Amino acid sequence: MPQANTRMSKIAQRRGEVFSTACPSREILNHVTSRWGVLVLVALMEGTHRFSDLRRKIGGVSEKMLAQTLQQLEKDGFIDRIAYPVVPPHVEYSLTPLGTEIGAQVDALIDWIESNLPKIMKAQQKRAA
Amino acid sequence: MPQANTRMSKIAQRRGEVFSTACPSREILNHVTSRWGVLVLVALMEGTHRFSDLRRKIGGVSEKMLAQTLQQLEKDGFIDRIAYPVVPPHVEYSLTPLGTEIGAQVDALIDWIESNLPKIMKAQQKRAA
DNA sequence: CCGGATCCGTATAGATACTG
DNA sequence: CAGTATCTATACGGATCCGG
Question: Is the pTM of this model over 0.85?
Answer without folding.
Answer: yes
